[in-house]
């Protein structure tokens, strides 16, 4: 009988495998195949403890060309860039990536061997190498800085911001304006430009978050954005990311890398004080791009096809409540303090001319879909962020907000944010004043609407009354409502109220 190998067996197999095939001097092809097998084995942490040790990480760093030379002291190590990105180096870097991803202690071993510094030295030179080399260096920087909160000093020491910009700019320069696709004649490789941009943006996000952690307690901080000082340090990335949004072709689905990483990176920046970076020469193209992303995303989801999606609201198979909020938050940040940007986005989402022949949350328009999300009690993140965006687009005016989405849809947000006191008799200037609008649904009601009981016979009216009686009786028995008999002095009570 064949028995399944235990975790201990797997660990022993991998240790022997490393000793025989990796550590020993074998033919290059044999070592390459061994590293390929090791990379696949390291995709799962079980049984790979031999790789996640200090000696295992050190060995992989050596074959990846990332191990410094020196006297053994971290401060005295001599760090040089990887001389050649051959098959052995590339496979070793892939193994390292899996190890750093699967085991947090591996990151400590990597850092103790000056791994982060070795990567930053390579970052200065890798722009002249293949896209695969760029991707691997960036991926290793990202993985080695996820839990390392004290990396801002070493990043500054090696001027990582300049090196990331030097990688980003040439890619943007090779976007074809006509086809909106990346040129394939520059730096050919197995990895696409979009993947490299994703890694750049992920490293940028890590750097900004780690810098914020250093200055504040990020867990207790209510603000998503970094402070002005940190934002100024990284502000040169803003126009590059905006240019990428404007020039590149929208991925399918839209909320997928690198767009999602670009959105997360821009969310870190405050907009106020940096308007010239987000809207260069008063160009608001970024608003159009993000509006397109939102509209296509809604159309591809099941939000536009159902009135009651509840927690099953999905966007390309992923929960809407985790996918949509970052985009909505970024759009809110962009329009909050900029009148022109707000006006432009409002015309896309809440156009002045729209159909009021049915309730405002019915239909497949972007307005109707967002209103359905903002009233979905099971989608807490989406409900709050979308309500805030729509309220902001209404110039933070409760009366305009009610007119644009309907009182019944707006009431929850207004109550939660203590805005009910702002409601008065003033209305939105675009509100139709010559038509009878249902204040709850926002729908225009026909003044000449026929009485539904007009053409009923006495028997039909009796059946309808009996049906209502049964319904009320059921509600009364279940405790949903409590039917009270008419008090004997009801007429006196009414008179007293008068």
What share of residues are in beta strands? under 5%
Strands ordered across the widest β-sheet: 1-2
Derived from helix and strand composition plus strand pairing, the structural class reads mainly alpha
| Helical content band | 55-70%
Secondary-structure element series: HHHHHHHHHHHHHHHEEHHHHHHHHH
> What composes the largest sheet?
2 strands, antiparallel
Features:
about 500 residues, mainly alpha, two-stranded antiparallel sheet, 24 helices, 2 strands, elongated, disordered N terminus, disordered C terminus
If you had to describe this structure to a student in words, what would you say it looks like?
With 498 residues, the chain is an all-alpha fold. The chain contains 24 helices and 2 strands. A two-stranded antiparallel ribbon has the order 1-2. It is elongated, with a radius of gyration of 31 Å.
Layout of strands and helices, then pairs:
Blueprint: H1 7-23, H2 28-41, H3 54-63, H4 87-102, H5 104-112, H6 115-125, H7 131-144, H8 152-157, H9 160-173, H10 193-215, H11 228-234, H12 237-247, H13 259-267, H14 275-278, H15 285-300, E1 314-315, E2 318-319, H16 320-323, H17 325-336, H18 339-349, H19 366-374, H20 380-393, H21 398-405, H22 407-416, H23 458-478, H24 490-497
Antiparallel strand pairs: 1-2
Helix pairs in contact: 1-2, 2-4, 3-4, 4-5, 4-7, 6-7, 7-10, 9-10, 9-12, 10-13, 12-15, 13-17, 17-20, 19-20, 21-22
């Amino acid at each position: 009988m064949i028995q399944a190998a235990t975790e201990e067996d797997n660990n022993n197999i991998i240790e022997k495998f490393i000793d025989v095939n990796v550590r020993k001097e074998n033919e290059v092809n044999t070592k390459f195949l061994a590293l390929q097998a090791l990379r696949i084995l390291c995709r799962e942490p079980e049984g790979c403890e031999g790789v996640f040790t200090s000696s295992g990480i050190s060995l992989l760093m050596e074959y990846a060309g990332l191990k410094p030379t020196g006297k053994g002291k971290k401060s005295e190590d001599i760090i040089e860039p990887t001389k050649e990105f051959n098959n052995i180096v590339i496979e070793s870097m892939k193994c390292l990536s899996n190890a750093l991803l699967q085991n947090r202690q591996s990151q400590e071993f990597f850092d103790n061997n000056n791994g982060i510094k070795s990567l930053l030295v390579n970052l200065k030179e890798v722009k002249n190498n293949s896209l695969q080399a760029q991707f691997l260096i960036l991926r290793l920087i990202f993985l080695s800085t996820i839990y390392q909160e004290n990396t801002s000093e070493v990043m500054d020491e090696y001027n990582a911001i300049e090196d990331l910009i030097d990688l980003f700019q040439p890619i943007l320069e090779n976007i074809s304006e006509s086809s909106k696709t990346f040129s394939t004649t520059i730096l050919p490789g197995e990895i696409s430009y979009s993947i490299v941009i994703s890694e750049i943006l992920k490293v940028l996000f890590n750097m900004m978050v780690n810098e914020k952690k250093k200055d504040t307690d990020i867990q207790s901080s209510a603000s998503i954005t970094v402070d002005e000082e940190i934002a100024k340090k990284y502000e040169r990335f803003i126009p590059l990311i905006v240019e990428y949004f404007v020039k590149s072709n929208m991925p399918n689905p839209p909320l997928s890398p690198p767009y999602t990483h670009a959105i997360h990176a821009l969310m870190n920046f405050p907009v106020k004080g940096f308007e010239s970076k987000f809207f260069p020469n008063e160009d608001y193209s970024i608003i159009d791009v993000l509006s397109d992303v939102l509209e296509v995303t809604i159309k591809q989801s099941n939000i536009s096809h159902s009135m009651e999606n509840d927690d099953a609201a999905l966007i390309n198979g992923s929960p809407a409540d985790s996918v949509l909020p970052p985009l909505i938050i970024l759009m809110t940040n962009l329009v909050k303090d900029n009148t022109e940007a707000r006006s432009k986005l409002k015309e896309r989402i809440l156009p002045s001319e729209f159909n009021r022949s049915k309730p405002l949350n019915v239909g497949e328009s972007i307005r109707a879909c967002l209103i359905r999300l903002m009233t979905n009690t099971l989608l807490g993140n989406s409900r709050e962020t979308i309500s805030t965006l729509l309220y902001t687009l209404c110039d933070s005016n409760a009366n305009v907000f009610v007119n644009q989405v309907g009182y019944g849809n707006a009431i929850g947000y207004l109550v939660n944010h203590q805005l009910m006191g702002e409601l008065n008799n003033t209305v939105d200037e675009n509100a139709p004043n010559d038509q009878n609008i249902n204040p709850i649904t926002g729908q225009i009601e026909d003044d000449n609407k026929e009485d539904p009981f007009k053409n009923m016979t006495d028997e039909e009216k009796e059946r309808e009354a009996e049906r209502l009686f049964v319904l009320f009786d059921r509600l009364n028995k279940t405790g949903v409502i409590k039917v009270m008999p008419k008090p004997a002095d009801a007429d006196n009570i009414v008179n007293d109220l008068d």
